[in-house]
Structure formats: structure tokens, C-alpha cells
Amino acid sequence: MSRKRSTGSLFAWERAMFAAWRDRRYHETLDPLYDRFQEWRRGELDHTDLDAAIHCAHRELQKVYAELGSKPSELARTIVADRAWYDQWCAGHPPPDEDES
């Protein structure tokens, strides 16, 4: 990732990647909670189980917030380390040439 604070295309590409990663992490954490709420709404889950699901999601969100609040260079390392996600995202969003920034 870029070490300089650019307003060019590399900066925009990094920001788009961070936004896509944030969306992914929120879905990973909140979609299961949404499913539990739907089960509760249908009467398939009691309040105790729903409370546990909310607590679990809250703990996971704290990890997500810490991850997303880290330095951009640290967040970029975390994202790139998830090769499957990063490679798939880059396939649809190729990084710009460094000299374009």
C-alpha cells in the first residue's frame, strides 16, 4: 500500500478497498445476528438465546472497531493477509500504477 498520503488514484483505490473490507466485516458480524433476530421474531428463539447472540455480536464488533480503527498501514496488512478476499477484490478492482498517484 502507499506510504505517502496521496489524493490521487492510489489513495482512492485504498479507500475503496477499506470501505469494501469494512462492509465485509460488518456483514460477517451482523448477518448472523440478523438471522437470530428473525428466528426470535418467528418464535423459534427465546430471549435468553437472543441475549447471548447480541452479546456475542457486540464482542465481535469491538474487534471489528479495533481493526478498522487501526493505522491504515496496519489495516492494509490485515486485508492483504486474507489472500482469498484480497485477490478476489483486486480482480474486480485492479490497483492503479504507483506513478498515477
Characterize the quaternary organization of these chains: single chain
What shape does the CA trace take? Answer: elongated
Assign a percent range to the helix content: over 70%
Instruction: Tell how many strands the DSSP assignment holds.
Output: 0
Computed CA radius of gyration, to the nearest angstrom: 18 Å
The secondary structure category is: mainly alpha
Low-confidence stretches: 1-6
Give the count of structural domains: 1
Order of helices and strands: HHHH
Residue fraction in strands: under 5%
- Rounded mean pLDDT score: 91
**Largest beta-sheet characterization:** none
Total helical segments? 4
How far apart, in Å, are the first and last alpha carbons?
12 Å
What's the quick description here?
By secondary structure, the protein is mostly helical.
Could you explain the architecture of this structure?
The chain contains four helices and no strands. It is elongated and about 55 Å long. By secondary structure, it is an all-alpha fold. Helix 1 (9-41) runs antiparallel to helix 2. The protein has one domain.
Topology record:
Elements (H helix, E strand, L loop, with lengths): L8 H33 L5 H22 L3 H10 L1 H10 L9
Helix pairs in contact: 1-2
